[in-house]
């Protein structure tokens, strides 16, 4: 079941009577639509294979009408706004902060191996960013706290030869991102979401956040950032998701 708020008018009962084959699907869609309309602000609905709180109608409508500073619409095409990040699974790594290591390597002049406390000593930023999951949900203004990737890139002395960033995570999960996308202001390694330490399901103790690409690029349980000359498909990119994952062109599958 999807929670698209369709604007198509419901067919009349006469129309349905003429097309019995369509009836069950149409009735289900009508019921769903009514449910979502009646449900309204803050309602809990079953969608995307889970239980969600649908964003208030007003909030969703407002966001749909908003334009970002870069001129793109705030909500990318085909996305439904929900109020809270949905845990999307994956195999967690070691969540202990004391044992945590982040390796920054590849095309750099100064390889780094940072512990959790080392990362806390580097300039912290908090950014409210919208995130967009390829399965169709969007969360507006998730507040991430951590260290910008640009800061880490500077410290490591990224070479001119670097063109892509490979985020490396526990159990071999990787995600590839073009260097230009990775150096955007809002891209970071984050240890807090909405002011609270990351939970295990959201990638504790540290995850990547690349909000302007589909959320699979935001590796949880992050263990490394590798700068490379040549692109390398990551975990989902090898399994049919597109290489870049731009939500505004609905670049979902390859
Ligand atoms: N290490 C790791 N990171 C991962 C994944 C994963 O399976 N393993 N899944 C990705 C996918 S497909 C999505 S949609 C987001 C989901 O993040 P969330 O569970 O915090 O919502 O994490 C991404 N990062
Ligand atoms: Mo995903």
TrEMBL record:
Domain Oxidoreductase molybdopterin-binding residue range list: 95-236
Keywords tagged on the record: Oxidoreductase
Gene3D superfamilies per UniProt: Oxidoreductase, molybdopterin-binding domain
GO molecular function terms noted in the UniProt entry: oxidoreductase activity
Enzyme category, top tier: oxidoreductase
Presence of keyword Coiled coil: no
A Pfam family it matches: Oxidored_molyb
InterPro entries per the UniProt record, alphabetical: OxRdtase_Mopterin-bd_dom, OxRdtase_Mopterin-bd_sf, TAT_signal
EC number: 1.8.-.-
UniProt-recorded name of the protein: Sulfoxide reductase catalytic subunit YedY
Protein's gene: yedY_3
